[in-house]
What we know:
Radius of gyration: 16 Å
Order of helices and strands: HHHHH
Strand content: under 5%
Number of domains: 1
Keywords: Transferase
Number of strands: 0
Structural class: mainly alpha
GO molecular function, one term: transferase activity
Low-confidence stretches: none
Shape: globular
Number of helices: 5
Mean pLDDT: 82
Protein name: Glycosyl transferase family protein,putative glycosyl transferase,colanic acid biosynthesis glycosyltransferase WcaA
Distance between the termini: 31 Å
Amino acid sequence: MVVEYGEPWKVEEATQILHINHGEMQITSSPKKFSGYFHFYRKHKDKFDRASKKYQLFTLYQIRNKRMTWRTLLTLLSVRNGKRLADGIRGR
Length: 92
């Protein structure tokens, strides 16, 4: 949407209410989630800034439940990913 319509802008009041039914299939519970997410990342990575690329790559590691080396962890570490890592350690 950003590519087609330009930079987003923030409104103060909610313009919609989102109702989520977690009983249905979601990309985060699909057996094909890594493939779909990786395809999305490869397709759009040129549009991401550095922090967003780190976030997306960190997510790919989490989806795969793959252990990171210290070097990879330090490379992908950001404020957002640090919070996600802490939440994961706490069991949220």
